[in-house]
Every structure is written in structure tokens, then in C-alpha cells.
Write a structure and sequence with these properties.
Blueprint: E1 2-7, H1 13-21, E2 25-30, E3 35-37, E4 42-44, H2 47-54, E5 59-60, H3 71-78, E6 82-86, H4 94-97, E7 104-108, H5 120-126, E8 131-138, E9 148-155, H6 162-182, H7 216-225, E10 232-236, E11 239-249, E12 261-265, E13 268-272, E14 278-286, E15 291-293, H8 294-301
Parallel strand pairs: 1-2, 1-6, 2-5, 6-7
Antiparallel strand pairs: 3-4, 7-8, 8-9, 10-11, 11-14, 12-13, 13-14, 14-15
Length: 310
């Protein structure tokens, strides 16, 4: 089968790699334009483009595929039997979705109709789900509402961070995609129950802000959900404090304000949370600093019992 692959981030790579190694032919890779990144703001290719170039695959990078007049010509030249979409990052027009004979399949990192949208892995962790999964569905013009061809449940491990879970889902999804392609034409698509839908909107930087009035389990989910970007963060002495790792602790007796530092030890910095709970910060990063263990950070910045994180 001739396939046009749409994808951009590292989570799309397992599916592309499996397709390239299979009997299918990837005739075109469509991905996001190069973006400025890093302190030098140098133009950098996304992971999917870098891999495609290594393998000699043709690459097309529309700024906005819905408004690119050359899009259909590029796709027609590739003569696809099917479009495969994995975290492409742009809204697809109907003219592209329905161009190939088998139309378009989307690999989504949740058990649809739960967590439709741009950030399903992060919001599943933030919501305290014990299980998430992979869905392969027929793309239509609405957001993640097309009929389902295949699903697979995946448990969320205790303490698992979003980037770890996403990498796990990407590998499982790549295998499920190939299995689905083998059975394409014999699978009867199942309509989604839209009444059960929930949504996972695009993440904003302010979503990472920690509210210490929440209990420690909720704080922990925010740290794990937004690990990598935008990172969970608090403020200390009017400066941003990024929290990379920690764990919720049990209840304590003494009352006091949320955000108060209860203890500093070689394990880390224990902070009072809501509901009579506390959270142990194990790794963090000061604004414009480097990531490090919490204990030496506390010593260097004179964080001690009784101080407050906002």
C-alpha cells in the first residue's frame, strides 16, 4: 500500500519507522516547518523530518496545509492509497482527508472518545486515570470524532511521567497500526459515543503552575503530567522554581499555610499541601539554572523550614 505519512514530533517516529520497515511504501512525509529553537534560535527540523531525510524520503512542510494551494498537487503526485496521521499538529482539510481511496487513518494517544484533542497523555495523567490507551480511527472533519477501527488499553504505571507514557504508547500504537493495515477492509468501523467524550486542550505555560492548596496527590499528578513542557512550577522569592520530580507523602498533624516548607533533608524539600498532606520535592531547577537534586539546591538558596513557596 502506498502511504503518505503526516507527523512531526518524536512520538510519531515509531509508527513511521515501522511503516518504512514494512511491505508498505511511504511515498511522502508531510511534517511541520522547521522552527527556531534553543538559545541561539537556530532553525531546527522536527524529529520526523530528520528521520525522513536520513532515509531519503521526500518531505513536504506546509506552513498551514488548509491554506496551501500546492497541497493537493503534492499529494496527488505521491499517489497514496491511504494517509496515516500521527501527531501532525495541523488541522486537515476535507480535500486532503478524502483524497486517497482508503481516505485517512489517525493514531491517537487515548481511548476515544475520552481525551479528544492535542494533549491526551498529559490530561489523562492530570485527571488521575489508571488506564489510557491507543485508538486508530478514520479521520473526518471534526476533532477526533471519526469511527474507530482499533483500540488497545495501556495501564499508567505509578509515578509515570507524560513523556515516558507517550513513548510507551507510541511503540504500542505503531504495532497496532500495522496490524490494522493488515486487516483494513475487513474491519467494521464503530461509531464513537459522543455523549462520553472528554477533551484534552492544547497545553499552555500557565497550566504548569502548582496550587499548594491542592492535596499532594494532585500536585504529584501535575508534576508528572507536565514533565518536560511546560514543567510544573512554583515561585520562590519572586522567581520561577521548576519542579522536575517528587512524590506525595502521608498526612501530618501540625497546621499551617499551604506551600510552607516543613522539612529539608538529603531526601529533598517537603512542602505542605492541602488536605493535611505534603509533597517531597526531589529534583528541581531555579530560573535560568540547571536541574539538580533538591537538597543541594536548598542549601545553596537557603531554603529552610518555615519558608513559603508561592
Amino acid at each position: 500500500m502506498r502511504i503518505v505519512f503526516f507527523g512531526s514530533p518524536v512520538s510519531a517516529l515509531p509508527a513511521l519507522k515501522k511503516l518504512v520497515a514494512s511491505s508498505h511504501q511511504v511515498t511522502l512525509v508531510v511534517t511541520q516547518p522547521d522552527r527556531a529553537s534553543g538559545r541561539g534560535r537556530r532553525e531546527t527540523a522536527c524529529p520526523v523530518k530528520a528521520f525522513a531525510r536520513e532515509r531519503g524520503l521526500p518531505v513536504y512542510q506546509p506552513e498551514r496545509i488548509r491554506k496551501d494551494p500546492s497541497a493537493l498537487d503534492r499529494l496527488r503526485d505521491a499517489r497514496p492509497d491511504l494517509n496515516v496521521i500521527v501527531a501532525f499538529g495541523q488541522i486537515m482539510p476535507a480535500s486532503v482527508i478524502y483524497l486517497p481511496p482508503f481516505h485517512s487513518l489517525n493514531l491517537h494517544f487515548s481511548l476515544l472518545p475520552k481525551y479528544r484533542g492535542a494533549s491526551p497523555v498529559q490530561w489523562a495523567i492530570l485527571s488521575g486515570e489508571a488506564v489510557t490507551g491507543i485508538t486508530i480511527f478514520e479521520l473526518d472533519e471534526k476533532m477526533d470524532e471519526g469511527p474507530i477501527l482499533a483500540q488497545r488499553e495501556v495501564p499508567i504505571a505509578p509515578g509515570e511521567k507524560s513523556f515516558e507514557l507517550e513513548a510507551h504508547l507510541a511503540e504500542i500504537g505503531a504495532d497496532l497500526l500495522l496490524k490494522t493495515l493488515e486487516e483494513l477492509g475487513r474491519i467494521r468501523p464503530a461509531a464513537q459515543d459522543h455523549a462520553l467524550a472528554s477533551y484534552a486542550p492544547k497545553i499552555k505555560k500557565e497550566d504548569g503552575r502548582i496550587d499548594w492548596t491542592n492535596d499532594a496527590a494532585t500536585v504529584d499528578r501535575r508534576v508528572r503530567a507536565f514533565a518536560g513542557w511546560p514543567s510544573a512550577h512554583a515561585r520562590f522569592k519572586e522567581r520561577r522554581l521548576i519542579i522536575h520530580d517528587g512524590r506525595p507523602l502521608g498526612a501530618f498533624a501540625r497546621e499551617g499555610p499551604p506551600g510552607e516548607v516543613l522539612r529539608v533533608s538529603e531526601e529533598g524539600i517537603e512542602v505542605r499541601c492541602g488536605g493535611g498532606s505534603s509533597y517531597l520535592i526531589r529534583r528541581l531547577q531555579g530560573e535560568n539554572g540547571r536541574e539538580m537534586d533538591a537538597a543541594p539546591f536548598a542549601r545553596g538558596h537557603r531554603i529552610s523550614t518555615g519558608l513559603k513557596l508561592d
